[in-house]
Please model this.
Amino acid sequence: MGHWQTALYCIGRKGTVWNGLFAVPAGMKPQCPQSPSYRQEVRDGQTRVEQYRIQGWQPRSLIEPLKQAGFAQLEDEIEGPNHYSVFMGRNAPAELFYTAVADGQDTLITLSGK
Model:
């Protein structure tokens, strides 16, 4: 069974965010998109994607740790009642798309990029 076929095919280094930048914060549960096209893109090395679920509406849960890891906000935030997103990176163009959406009583945060 290949790495991409496991339940957490998208997590590069278990227990860390974005392949080792920092430890997964307490209360966050890593998961991966169920989309077969995402799985194929990750397997082919075209993209990276990680998802984290946290209870309640906490759309900025990973922003501060990402900033501490050297990522800056590179484009304007987009925010709505159940959605928050921003492009972040160490330099332009942005390396990371950060998006948070309400999913039931939880927040689902998706990090994607190259």
About this structure: The beta strands are 16-17, 22-23, 29-31, 48-55, 72-73, 78-80, 83-89, 96-103, 106-113. The chain has one domain: 16-113. The first strand starts at residue 16 and ends at 17.
